[in-house]
Amino acid sequence: MTDADSNADPPENDGQQFDRLPATADERVVPGRPTREEVVQWWDQRFGVPPETWDGHTFWEKGNGKIWAFAADVVSPIAVEGLGLRILRARQEHWKPSTNAVQRFCRDATENVVVLDGDEAACFARGDDQELPRWDGDWGYVVAAHEIAGDVEPIGVGLYLHGELRSTVPKGRREDLE
Amino acid sequence: MQPLERYASLVDDFDAFRAACERPLPSVVRVNTLKASIERAREALNAEGVAYEATDWHPGVLRLDERGPGTSWPYFHGWLHGQEEVSALPALALDPQPGEVVWDAAAAPGSKTTQLADLMDDEGVLVGNDNNLGRLSALRHNAERLGITNLVVTNQDARNFSFKPFGDRTDDAKRIEAFDKALVDAPCSCEGTIRKNPDALDRWSMTHVESVAGIQKGILRRAIQATKPGGTVVYSTCTFAPEENEAVLDHVLDEGDCEMREWDAPDGFETDPGVTEWDGETYDPSVELAHRVYPHRNDTGGFFCAKLEVTA
Ligand SMILES: C[S@@+](CC[C@H](N)C(=O)[O-])C[C@H]1O[C@@H](n2cnc3c(N)ncnc32)[C@H](O)[C@@H]1O
Questions:
Q1: Residue B80 lies in a domain
Q2: What CATH number has the domain bearing residue B176?
C-alpha cells in the first residue's frame, strides 16, 4: 500500500487561483467549499431567485469563501485576476451577497426585498443606516430596492436588525443622489 | 499644441482642427444594455431632469449638457458608463458576437471592454488584459458595476501573452489556445486627448513616440498570432502620429499574416482615410482603409482605428 494521498492532509483552498465549485456534496474535495447546489438553493431560499437564473453560469471560489459567477466555462483551477462577477461571501454563518450581484440577479427576487421610497433610497445609496420599523420580514441580509423608470430595481444589500436597515453599499459605490 | 503643428499637411482645414483641439470635450455616456434598455435609461435620465442629446450615429451614446455622469440613479444602477464618444468606434469595428472568445489586449480601465461585453450580450469568453495592476482594479470595478459576468481579467505583458493559465497544450476539453477576435487599443502618445487633458502634450517627444511605437508593434504582432485564421483584429489609438498608426500597421502587414479590411464608420460619423506617405516613408497602400478621426469633423477627441483579418 503506497497510496500517498490517503495520508496527506486534505486539500485546502488556494487564494491565488479560481477553483470550480463541486456540483454536489458527493463531489466535494476541498473541505468547507460550498457546492453549486448549495449556492443555487441559497439564492432561491433567501430571495426567491429562480434556480434556472444560473443555468448559463459556472461558480468558482477564490480567496476564502469568495464565490464568483462566470458566464462560460474554463479549465479549473485557473490562476487569473478576475473571473466573472463576485456574487457571494460564503464560509461564514450568514452568507453575504454582493451589491453587484444583487443589482444584476435580483430584479425578479420575490423574498426579503425592501422597497424604499425616494428619501429612504437616497439615504441607502449614501451608505447611511436608517430606522425602518415598517419592515416586518426576516432579519438579516435583504435586497434594498426602489421604483425607477416604471419598475422596481434593486439598489444593493441591506442588513436588517432591530428595526434598523443598515446599508452595505461599498465605499467606492456610494453616491449622494438627493 | 506645438507638436500638433507637424500634422498641418495631413489635415484639411487645419485652422478648424486647431480650434477644435482648444475646446473642452462634452461629457458622454454609453447605455449599458446588459442592465437597462436604451429607452429605460433615457426615461430615468428624463425623470431626474438630466439634460442630454443622443449622438447622430448611436441612440445609446448620449452627450450630457453638464459635465460628469457620476451622480444620477441610472449611473448608480450601472445603466450608464462614462465613455468618450470616439472611443465607441473600435468595439463596433470588432463586432464581437455572443459566444465568441475575444481578447482585449490593453484593456484598463475598461471602457471598450465593457462595451465589448455588451455587444456579446455577456455570453462567451472576454479576456481583459493589462500589464498595469493598478489600472486593472479600475477595470474590475467598472465591469462589476455594469454587471458583466463573461470577463476573465489577466495581468500580463500583452507582447508575450501566454495561454498557459487557460490550459493550452493540455488535453482539457475546456482549454483556450486562440482567440476568435482581438482588440488592441494600444498605449500611445495620446495627442488626440488634448481636449480632455489640456496638458496631454506637455511631455510629448519624438523619442517617446518612437519607443511607444515599438510596444504597439509588439502587442499587435502578438494579437495577430493569438487570433485564429479568419479572425478579426482591430487596432486603435487616440493619437495622430503616423509613426504610431499607419507605420505600425505597415509593420505587421509586412510580416504577411494579416490583411487590412474595409470597415464603414457609422452613418453620420465622418472620418479621413489612413495616410500612405509620411516624413519620407511610404506605407502599404491598403492602410488607406484605416480611419483617422480629427476633432473638428464630429466635435470629438482625436482617434485612429483599423480593422485587420488574420490570414495565417
Ligand atoms: C489606451 S489605454 C487602454 C484604454 C482601454 N482600452 C479603455 O478603453 O478603457 C492603454 C493601456 O495599455 C496598457 N499597456 C501598456 N503597455 C502594455 C503591455 N505591454 N501589455 C499590456 N498592456 C499594456 C496600459 O497600462 C494602458 O492601460
A1: no
A2: 3.40.50.150
d(CA B109, CA B106): 9
Residue B207 domain boundaries: 85-310
Residues of A in contact with B125 (CB under 8 A): 72, 74
Is residue B106 in a domain? yes
Residue with cell 423574498: A111
pLDDT tens-digit map of B92-133: 999 999 999 999 999 999 999 999 999 999 999 999 999 999
Q: What is the DSSP letter of A114?
A: E
Residue B305 annotated to the active site:
no
Query: How many independent structural domains does chain B possess?
Result: 1
Q: Is B222 close to ligand 1, i.e. is its CB under 6 Å away?
A: no
Does B141 contact A at CB distance below 8 Å? yes
In our burial notation (b when 16+ CB lie closer than 10 A, e otherwise), range B27-61 reads bbbbbbbbbbebebbbbbbeeeebebeebebbebb
Say if strands A82-83 and B151-154 run parallel, antiparallel, or are unpaired.
antiparallel
User: What is the average pLDDT across A132-139?
Assistant: 91
Rounded CA gap, A22 and A63, in Å?
Answer: 16
Taking contacts as CB-CB distances below 8 angstroms, the residues of chain B near A78 are 152, 165-167
Considering chain B, what is the average pLDDT of its residues?
96
**Nearest CA-CA distance, residue B146 and chain A, Å:** 8
In a domain, B19, yes or no: no
Per residue in A41-73, pLDDT (tens digit) is: 999 999 999 999 999 999 999 988 999 999 999
Domain layout of chain A by residue ranges: 19-105, 113-173
- The residue whose CA is least distant from atom 27 of ligand 1 is B108
pLDDT tens figures, B248-298: 999 999 999 999 999 999 998 999 999 999 999 999 999 999 999 999 999
Which residue out of B21, B188, B190, B238 is catalytically annotated?
Answer: B238
Taking the model in full, what pTM does it have?
Answer: 0.96
Q: Which residue has the cell 445603466?
A: B79
Give the architecture (CATH level 2) of A113-173: Roll (2.30)
The answer to whether position B10 is within a domain reads no
DSSP conformation class of B117: H
